Amino acid sequence: AAPALRLDAITKTFGSAIALDRVSFAIAPGEVVALLGPSGAGKSTIFRCISRLAEVDAGTVTVLGRDIGALDRRALREHRGAIGLIFQQFNLISRMNAIDNTLAGRLGQVPTWRAVTRCFSREDRQIALAALDRVGLLEKAYQRADSLSGGQQQRVAIARVLAQRSRLVLADEPVASLDPASAANVLTVLKDIARERSIAVLCALHQTDLACRYADRIVAMRKGRLVLDAPAAAVSAAE
Ligand code: ADP
Ligand code: ADP
């Protein structure tokens, strides 16, 4: 299959600082790639370049066959809306229940209160309930996001991605705030849905052992350079 995401020699500088130096890698549909690297390595900048919240100085970012550098304003809005985003701090609307937070995925991007108070169809609600069921949270559908545990909130974020029908998910340290059992649970669900729906996942992690256990491939960065791109099975957790 053609890659869902391809970075070709992307370079990004901030003044004289080189945040990304000719970084290249690709992610196939259904593949989970862990992005490792110490603080300042360039991980957030990669995410920003993929969403085109930052413009690359050189190189190309191709998402689902399209060079995103060439998108006009409207196409760029659609591009951003199609990417599923999962953050360290959950980014749910705390006063809203799980189903409404999930439905926000039907609107694309991160929900705003105004966006989700629009009307949703019965079909939308069924899609959201199916997504919550898939992540094991059907019985929590009508509970407020802030009444859920961290692991449950992160699974609502995964349900939101399912409802959004994203084919590319960017997860930025999604388990950094969770206890080990919840982290394992969230990464298992993420990996399973990637397989089931052929979703490509780029997941920043800071624990190599989790990357080895849950990712298909590991990409490691250091000072803006790619220093490793290998199957997770070939990487020892000791590295
Ligand atoms: P990571 O997410 O791996 O911690 P970042 O992508 O945030 O790394 O940062 C990579 C490098 O780019 C760092 O040296 C950082 O200081 C620099 N950088 C990132 N964003 C900016 C910015 N908006 N202005 C100036 N320098 C930046
Ligand atoms: P977390 O650890 O994510 O904070 P809990 O462990 O409290 O959440 O899980 C809440 C309920 O959901 C439990 O009954 C648990 O068995 C169930 N559950 C957890 N993960 C899943 C899943 N992936 N699929 C189905 N049910 C799940």
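^ adenosine-5'-diphosphate complex. The radius of gyration is 17 Å. The chain has a mean pLDDT of 93.
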